[in-house]
Amino acid sequence: MRLSESIYWIGGGSVGPGFTAAGDCNVYLLRGPEGYAMVDAGCGERPELIERQLAWDGVKPHEIKAIVITHAHWDHVKGANYWRERTGAKIYAPEGAAEYMLRGGQYAPEARPDGYRIDPTPPDERIAAGETFAAAGLNLTAIHLPGHCAHMFGFFAELDGARVLACGDLFYWGGKVTVFLNPDADRAIFRQSLLRLRDESFSVLLPGHRYPVMQQAQQHLPLAIEEIERQLAGQPAMRG
Ligand SMILES: [Zn+2]
Fold it and tell me: How much is the pTM?
């Protein structure tokens, strides 16, 4: 689904619109001068549903030149091997995520009781915090946003005259945040990551679940800060 001149929403599972496999995170394409950068790879189940979106949007798989991973949770990364093979794209991953991806296995969130495993998925490029790199000819700047897990990055891009933040699983419309039981989840660190974003300007937010925010996205940041502060004070997480 094309959201703007240069942003496409091509995957989203049950914690969101449900137009691709239930386990999929949101999967986006950002159009750059040399093709497309895919943001996150989904869970790898029923990839034909993502493929169908590509066809409807007139995107050929081989035009996807980069697969940019926000963090190594299964719903974001398990599809990366499939899409690398299908497209010939390079996988870019946060340096901390790369360790999990190389190893494969059952990494967090580890709550799935069904023996679910991830094949080793060596990234082609390891991205450092603060680094600006070209993906499909598009300049992306990585920002380390720990809290949901220790190694998560967000990526800033300038697209269609707007500053865009692909934030992984940091926060969503209305200030919703998700903190799982993975050992490297930490609400105090989560809060620091949210506070850090107050110094950045962005009007478009492409989160890993729920739905994208195409204007005035920064308005949702103070709501997320309030939410994590409520949780830190021992109150239950926001419903919905
Ligand atoms: Zn996650």
Answer: 0.96
- Compute, in angstroms, the gap from residue 76 CA to the centroid of ligand 1: 7
Tokens 């549903």 correspond to what residue? 49
Its domain, for residue 208, covers: 7-232
Residues 154-204 pLDDT 10s: 999 999 999 999 999 999 999 999 998 888 999 999 999 999 999 999 999
Whether the CB-CB separation of 5 and 31 falls below 8 Å is answered with: yes
* Cα 195 to middle of ligand 1, angstroms: 19
Task: Compute, in angstroms, the gap from residue 73 CA to the centroid of ligand 1.
Answer: 5
Phi, psi of 16, deg, nearest 5: 160, -145
CATH number at residue 73: 3.60.15.10
Closest of 103, 105, 102 to residue 116, by C-alpha: 105
